[in-house]
Amino acid sequence: MDFRDELRTRILIGDGAMGTLLYSNGIDNCYEELNISHPDRIATIHTAYLEAGADILQSNTYGANYYKLKLYGREEEVSSINRKGISLAKKAAMGKAFVFGTIGATRSFRKSNLELEEIKRSFREQLYSQLMEDPDGLLFETYYDLEELETVLKIARQETQLPIIANVSLHEIGYLQSGIHLNEAFLRLEELGADAVGVNCRLGPHHMLRSFEEVPLPKHAYLSVYPNASLPDYIDGRLVYEAVPEYFGSSALKLREQGARIIGGCCGTTPKHIQAIKQAVGNLPPINEKQIKPRKMELIEVTYNENNVALHQKAKKERTILVELDPPKKLGIKEFMAGAKALHDAGIDSITLADNSLATPRISNLALGTMLKNEIGTEPLIHITCRDRNLIGLQSHLMGLQTLGLNEILVVTGDPSKIGDFPGATSVYDLSSLDLISLIKQFNEGLSYSGQSLGQRTNFKIAAAFNPNVRYLHKAVERMEKKIACGAHSFLTQPVYSVSQIEDLYESTKHLDTPIFIGIMPLTSSRNAEFIHNEVPGIKLPDDIRKAMAAAGSDPVKARAEGVAIARELVDAAVEKFNGIYLITPFLRYEMTVELSIYIRKVDSERFVEVTTYEQ
After folding, report:
1. CATH classification of 315-524+562-615 is 3.20.20.220, yes or no?
2. Mind listing the pLDDT tens digit for each residue in 15-35?
3. Contact between 266 and 49 (Cβ < 8 Å)
4. Where are the domains of the chain?
5. Over the stretch 185-221, which tens digit does the pLDDT of each residue have?
6. Is it true that domain 3-281 has CATH number 3.20.20.330?
7. Do 315-524+562-615 and 3-281 fall under one CATH topology?
8. What's the CA gap between 521 and 563, in Å, rounded?
9. How many Å apart are CA 259 and CA 285, to the nearest integer?
10. DSSP assigned state of 221
11. pTM here?
């Protein structure tokens, strides 16, 4: 049999789930390793699908790549597990079904966890192992990230002319998580040489059917669909799929009407589901024409009346001062609001509000930001950490910020929970800072993470964190450039305590057009200086600064004055090179940052007078 010839003339039936079938029988470990340790179990499942009517058997190699096998200490067995997986499927097929080597996605929500070069290396190892066993084709499945699928498809097409099925996965109907419509994704995969393009996993037949209604028949490739049995239920600590096989069979008829040429099953499906598909469509001819349901993209264009120039835009032209004022750890905001008012009166451009800094519970920065905006008239910059909210909570939080008109935000990874007051609390980190910046950029385009329309575009100005207190500054700048590519509009640095460090930072970043706000935090005492120098990772204070703070003694007034004097020297160096200054208020002692803010405005005013006099 020739796969491509068969696909042109009839509907091929795929097999069903492997992992969830094993899981339902009490196996909850590395499924791919069973190819070696319990090959009979895998062979039995393959045989059951063959007898149910499957024309295509997938090898049990979905997660048999370096990174997933490493979780089980089996990263050295990539080749043997993949080869055995193909061998088992071929033996079970007995020439009665096509055997496709299965390779699953490696990227999750956190795209930045794996760089493309790492994905390429891992994929090649898995691909070459499978090709050694001469499968009838390759099946790439459960790819939420189109960039990853395109990358591996290119590699595969360079290495083999075997038939390839390329399946993406969707969070929502019709759109990939990047906001790309399913039809566009299929066109791109078809151009890269996929013989069949389709959808698998995450969604059941109903939602996949609705997704296919907006997709025309491809010009050269064919449509593939592997739905889950249903949405899973959670019963007694286990995921359970309850859709009956009869429903799956009737759904297969509707999927055929949408042009599906390969129909199988994913999570929760069993040989009975595949048998139902076979009975429903196995003898029916494929569809060669279909009506396309018009695509609807509801996006209301909103014109935002900007009362203030965006901070990153202002910093490109003139001095811009940001001051961080930490939300209080305890209830009661009288002192905080007094400090905010004093800073506003001192002429700063924005108050930045940390998001539970040092992993310690504080009053919500969203609540305080709303009060600052409404009661004082300042435009706050709201920090958002990746630590405290999962992907659902982050999106809800962003929609809330937009609704309240709090559009200046700073994306930070967030200190891990273990260093804060509740070390046993969970650090979420569904997204990295790079991922969150990309998500916010996508919100600005009117799309949620799942690719669905938000109804409106958001209007966020995205600041990102930059740590210059590293051994290799060029590496930190490379990460900065990645954040710019993701959508960052400006950067706020960690506090710096050296004039030479400011000069080095300028030389390393002067090729960038993205504004940088230099972080300066005045020291409050010798004890404070020694703590920062010895216990805060990555920050080392120059000896002369530590000696100056020690010389100020234990008198808090003298120590405060010395801390401000040191900060002034840093300000003098920073304003020579950068328009953006980011003052960090220590311990809510806002008098120090008020004094420094007034000093900066005075320096700028004197310079303006000098320049004007010179020009005259």
Report:
1. yes
2. 999 987 887 777 778 999 999
3. no
4. 3-281, 315-524+562-615
5. 999 999 999 999 999 998 999 999 999 999 999 999 9
6. yes
7. yes
8. 9
9. 11
10. S
11. 0.81
